[in-house]
Amino acid sequence: MKLRITASDITDPEELRTLLIDAADELAGAGCRILEPQLSWDGHPILLADAGLHPVLVSFDVAHGQAALLNGLKNAEQLAGTLAWVNQVYDFLQQQQRAPKLIVVSRELPPGATAILSACPNLSLFRYRILNVNGETGLWLERMSGDNAPLKAESVPAPAPAAAPPARPFVVAATAATDNDTLPSLSDEENAYFQQL
User: Fold this and answer.
1) For the whole model, what pTM was predicted?
2) Which residues contact 142 (CB under 8 A, 6 or more apart)?
């Protein structure tokens, strides 16, 4: 039997959603549960519970990785604010109070993700490719590091243990700047938001 593999493409977000739901164990770890296959929030993310029964939000976009990242950050904050409701609806979660994990799936690492990834220990980024294997559509997932490189050459590595090492600090080298290329510093509220993620 010949194995025929070709790169493919999809434009339908529902087809990608179906493939991501099928790959839920690769995203959130073995033993995860699907809580909501399509939340009615921006980007219509997927809500999972990992094997430790912690909420995991999967944000994705077929064409725009930046939209997936921004919608995911917004929805993760919204989910953190509604954990009491989530705990009531899904009583097997055993009254989880930890901030939800956020998984962003896109074709490429979204712009600005390097800085956010280093500051958010609950954020994981995955790059996807659509493959056609002997006529069947499949999904190839690679967990990304902050430098836009896969963590491993294999598909998705096993999830990290609960006590992960602290994220490396984000350091910007001092350069001469003009008024047009400087960014305002983050407010205390914005700093607190990114510290909690």
Assistant:
1) 0.71
2) 126, 127, 128, 129, 150, 151, 152, 155, 156
Answer positive or negative: Cα dihedral of 41, 42, 48, 50: negative
d(CA 114, CA 67): 15
146 Cβ contact partners less than 8 Å away, ≥ 6 residues apart: 113, 114, 117, 118, 168
Which pLDDT value is given to residue 147? 52
